[in-house]
Design a protein that fits this description.
The protein has 431 residues and is mainly α. The chain has one domain. Helix content is 79%, strand content 0%. The protein has 21 helices and no strands.
Length: 431
């Protein structure tokens, strides 16, 4: 076991260091480890077989549909309407544009299921406006980057679907419902930090929106917000499964973007479909190679050995959960969420289940933890995207992100040690 771990870790780190794409890095590291430790087996053929079986799942069919729905939403004028609606609620407060940014990211991230989409759509609109109003550009980018991650907890969320697969079948509907309170709590934590910074730096107060104008903005935003109601309501009511809900989301997004808002032209649909295929191919390759690595880890009994080691290390549930969170926070700084969920769920889920934590609770904790990694250097994908949109550098944005990191970690600790926050809504709905 020690040799397999050494070969796996060293080869994977070297591949990342020389900028090999992470999906290829996972696959190559898995093959090398198998060649060194499971020599009689045909390593390449076994990895190929495990990749094929890893993506051969009806549950995963929801991912390309939700990606397509997010693409349609991103180009369909939804972001502007959500921003206008958020302005009518909090725009008149000191530093109001920062709150608008976070709330719009929460709304759009929940609708699209993508932190990158929220960063692009909301950041591309809000950051220039905040710059013009005198807000610091690093602060503006930090607000957008951190706020966009909340949409990965508020359903529909592709990464929760991946966790359902990795955990052996935790209900996707239960995961979706469980993500609401933690996602909202994280958003509120970010708003508190933005309020404190805005007060200290005396950022400007936005214009108060007239009552009837606010009503109009709310009515304009309702069709966009209804997507969440349609998808989650349909799943809870039992009208369709999560996979079927993803297809419903595509139909709804298509009608909304093309025929109601009319901001997506028919001639643009082929390009949107092509972009969806490209994104889905990357995600599925990550899932396939990560599934192969997970199988190899299981074959080598690594999850069982780690479970035994952590339990022997200490009997304190608090300490073990803290160790797991620290490991995941470190992993999140250099690994994308999808492979991290697929690789580390089989490793840590047996540990936390021995401590009495449910797979549902652990899934939300894990996803929230890895959300922080999306905006953490050196590999935070959303951080890089935000810096490009904000026309700034990683060093400056990382400094501005420090208080937001603190808020996100504080909320993570609450979610970890207070199961009620995660489990109350699923229990209400009978999950």
């Amino acid at each position: 076991m020690e040799l397999s771990v050494i070969v796996l870790v060293v080869s994977f780190v070297i591949l990342l260091a020389i900028n090999v794409p992470i999906a290829f890095g996972i696959g190559i590291a898995t093959i090398l480890t198998m060649l060194f430790t499971i020599a009689p087996m045909p390593a390449v053929a076994t990895v190929a077989q495990r990749m094929a079986s890893g993506i051969n799942s009806f549950v995963l069919l929801a991912i390309p549909f939700f990606i397509l729905s997010g693409q349609l939403m991103g180009k369909g004028g939804i972001a502007r309407r959500l921003i206008d609606f958020a302005k009518s609620i909090v725009g008149m407060l000191p530093g109001g544009l920062a709150y608008v940014n976070i709330m719009a990211c929460m709304f759009f991230g929940a609708i699209s299921g993508s932190a990158a989409a929220a960063t692009s759509a909301i950041g591309g609109f809000m950051v220039p406006i905040m710059n013009k109003e005198g807000y610091d550009k690093n602060f503006n980018t930090a607000v957008t980057v951190s706020g966009s991650t909340t949409g990965l907890l508020i359903p529909p969320s592709n990464v929760l679907i991946v966790y359902s697969l990795a955990s052996g079948g935790v209900s996707i509907a239960a995961l979706f419902i469980a993500g609401y309170l933690p996602g909202i709590l994280m958003g509120l934590g970010l708003i508190v930090v933005a309020a404190i910074i805005s007060s200290i730096k005396k950022y400007p107060v936005g214009e108060r929106v007239k009552f009837w104008d606010g009503i109009k903005r709310f009515l304009d935003a309702i069709p966009s917000l209804l997507l969440i109601v349609v998808v989650i309501g349909g799943i809870i009511a039992g009208y369709f499964t999560a996979t079927e809900a993803s297809a419903v989301a595509v139909i709804y997004s298509l009608i909304l973007s093309v025929f109601i808002y009319r901001e997506v032209k028919i001639k643009e649909l082929p390009q949107i479909l092509l972009k969806t295929v490209e994104t889905n191919a990357i995600v599925m390759l990550l899932i396939g190679t990560s599934s192969a690595m997970s199988w190899m880890l299981s074959y080598e009994n690594i999850p069982q050995n780690i479970t035994a080691y952590l339990i022997a290390l200490t009997s304190s549930k608090i300490v073990i959960l803290l160790i797991i969170n620290i490991i995941l926070l470190i992993v999140g700084t250099f690994m994308d969420m999808t492979p991290a969920v697929l690789i580390f769920t089989p490793i840590f889920l047996p540990v936390v289940m021995q401590l009495g934590m449910t797979p549902l609770h652990f899934g939300i904790m894990m996803v929230m933890n890895l959300c922080i990694g999306l905006c953490t250097p050196p590999v935070g994908s959303v951080l890089f995207l935000g810096c490009g949109i904000g026309n700034t550098n990683i060093a400056g944005v990382s400094r501005a992100l420090v208080p937001f990191y603190a808020a996100m970690v504080a909320v993570l600790m609450l979610i970890t040690y207070i199961p009620w926050i995660t489990l109350v809504l699923p229990r209400v709905f009978g999950y």
